[in-house]
Amino acid sequence: MENTQNTALLVMDMQSAIVAMLPDATIVKEKVAQAIAKARSKNIPVIYVVVGFRKGSPEISTNNKGFAASKDRFALISPEDFIKIHPDVAPLEDEVIVVKRRVSAFTGSDLEVILRGQDIKHIILTGIATSGVVLSTIREASDKDYRITVLADACADGDEEVHRVLTTKVFPRQADVLSVEEWSKL
């Protein structure tokens, strides 16, 4: 049986605007919703992480290749609308939402303060994109000595091959990689 004490489920970048970028987000939304339901049933805190910027995106440097390429797109949607979490995986009123300013869930956010405040030592990761927030968060969390589990089928990427390589070859070096079903049985 898994020790659920000191554990939190992170639901990362499951914003409507980001979910809409995937060709078929149905499966990942269903898997994330299953993981959320399971965490709640085990009294595991669910923490939502969203990427967001102020109006005009002053946080985005022209040196940041990834975000700078999307800066014009961010201008087309209000900051409040951009950070809205998809209704299929929406938080409960008392669940924490962390706003980050970069790819990793830790960078530019107060996530680490929230985790320390709740004495969280083990994080379970879900979200979009596998090659973005999931990869960056694993790397940083590993350096911060968190125990990490990735729910592979509750993560998605625009490139299925990249998702496969990361979840089968790269992530296992720093995290336990499970399906939502495998994790639910622990």
Concise synopsis of the structure shown:
It contains 8 helices and 6 strands, in the order βααβααβαβαβαβα.
Q: Classify the helix fraction into a percent range.
A: 25-40%
Biggest pleated sheet: 6 strands, parallel
- Please give the radius of gyration in angstroms: 15 Å
* Uncertain spans: none
- Sheet with most strands: strand arrangement: 3-2-1-4-5-6
Strand content: 15-25%
Given helix and strand content, the structural type is alpha/beta
What is the residue-mean pLDDT, rounded to a whole number? 93
First-last Cα distance = 5 Å
* Strand count: 6
Shape: globular
Question: What is the element string, with H for helices and E for strands?
Answer: EHHEHHEHEHEHEH
Number of helices: 8
Considering the chains and any ligands shown, give keywords for the structure.
single chain, 186 residues, alpha/beta, 8 helices
Give a structural overview.
- The protein has 186 residues and is of the alpha/beta class.
- It has 8 helices and 6 strands, in the order E-H-H-E-H-H-E-H-E-H-E-H-E-H.
- It has helices at residues 16-19, 26-41, 65-75, 79-82, 111-117, 130-143, 160-170, 180-184, and strands at residues 7-12, 46-51, 96-100, 122-128, 147-156, 176-178.
- It has a 6-stranded parallel beta sheet with strand order 3-2-1-4-5-6, with helices on both faces.
- Strand 5, helix 7 (160-170) and strand 6 (176-178) form a beta-alpha-beta unit.
- The longest helix is centred in the first third of the chain and has 16 residues, at 26-41.
